[in-house]
Design goal:
about 375 residues; six-stranded antiparallel sheet; about 25% helix; 3 domains; 16 strands; alpha/beta; 12 helices
Length: about 375
């Protein structure tokens, strides 16, 4: 057992990860509570997503689970993460940085499973096979991330790495200096005054040299329906007569966007079906690399200057990037979520950092 993560005296039900909302296929997955947005977050080292809050609370409060987990404050704090080995069904707990570091290094987790005995079928021979797949350099790196540093040093000779013990403090320093990802969405986030009450959010990762933030709505207000044409009436076949498509009679279609985040340069993506004027306000120190607007009807940007703006709206450019999403998850309203997100990630060569959305929104902020 490692001092970075502790194995719990309970094992997981075969359906635990599905009940908590995880749909991936990785062997290892971890959960933590994000107090800034009151949301359970899952991570498997490749993807980060939101989970089922109610199922999380039911799990934590179960009579067989609560005694083993109550000291870690999983329902309110984000210091500790719950880690699951989906093969052995073993559960572990560890501090966030340590668990995230393990998830990013599959060989370390394999080594942890061997050290901990793994499943019933794992033996000393499996342990040797795991070590044989690691080069001396990677073996040392993974050991120093999984085993307490004193034990790792004692094993260096057996692995043929040598006696370069000066590397250990360097590894420890890098782990200590590793930046902590802060949530770009505040705990009180909503759709704004006059907005709907279906606020939805997703928090991804920020591992590259820039961040990609997406805000999506269907509309900015309810008055656009004065000329209430259906999607079919606005389809390309209906516009071949050469007449511009009506955009409705709204005069208050502005959405306020406030960007305060200073972590890295930001690509800001704004998407709506109905016509929207996105009024963007930047706090000092914020760097926006470019703004992308996506919509069926015409989208405009105000409040900023000198920032490249890419417009993709059917009404103005004849095409749009992807379908219009305003709710994250697996509900009917968000069945097309991956399409727009995938295209934005491909175009900008960076993973999505955050999403915020409402059917009707008037005010959003990126912290």
């Amino acid at each position: 057992m490692s001092n970075l993560v502790q194995r719990l005296a309970i094992t997981a039900h075969p359906q635990l990860e599905k009940s908590l909302g995880y749909r991936g296929d990785s062997r290892w997955v971890a959960w933590r509570w994000e107090p800034d947005i009151d949301q359970i977050i899952s991570s498997d080292g490749k993807t980060v997503g939101t989970g089922n809050n109610m199922a999380w609370l039911v799990f934590l409060q179960h009579d067989l689970v609560q005694p083993a987990l109550q000291e870690y404050n999983f329902a309110e704090g984000d210091r500790h993460w719950l880690l699951l080995d989906t093969e052995t069904r073993n559960l572990y707990v560890g501090e966030g940085k340590a668990v995230q570091s393990l998830l990013e290094q599959p060989e370390s987790l394999a080594l942890l499973a061997c050290l901990d005995g793994g499943s019933a079928g794992q033996t000393a021979e499996t342990w040797q096979q795991t070590l044989s797949k690691l080069t001396p350099t990677t073996a040392f790196r993974h050991l120093t991330n999984v085993i307490p540093f004193g034990i790792a040093a004692a094993l260096i000779g057996a692995l043929g790495v040598g006696t370069g013990l000066w590397v250990v403090p360097t590894v420890q320093q890098k782990l200590t200096e590793k930046t902590t990802f802060t949530s770009p969405i505040s705990s009180g986030a909503n759709c704004g005054i006059g907005g709907s009450e279906d606020f939805s959010a997703y928090i991804g990762s920020s591992t590259g040299d820039k961040e990609l933030h997406l805000i999506g709505v269907y509309e900015a207000n309810a008055e656009h329906g004065k000329v209430n044409l259906s999607k079919s009436a606005l389809a390309p076949s209906k516009r071949s007569e050469g007449k511009p498509a009506p955009t409705g009679g709204s005069s208050t279609n502005r959405i306020e966007i406030k960007v305060e985040r200073r972590n890295k340069p930001i690509i800001l993506a704004l998407s709506a079906y109905e016509p929207v004027n996105w009024n963007v306000t930047l706090e000092p120190g914020t760097v926006i690399e470019k703004i992308i607007v996506n919509g069926y009807n015409n989208q405009t940007v105000s409040g900023v200057s000198g920032i490249p703006i890419e417009e993709h709206s059917y009404e103005k450019t004849g095409n749009y990037i992807g379908d219009f999403i305003y709710k994250w998850g697996t509900t009917p309203e968000s069945t097309n979520t991956p399409s727009l997100v995938t295209k934005l990630e491909e175009i900008n060569r960076t993973k999505l950092t955050s999403f915020q959305g409402c059917y009707r929104g008037t005010n959003f902020s990126i912290k």
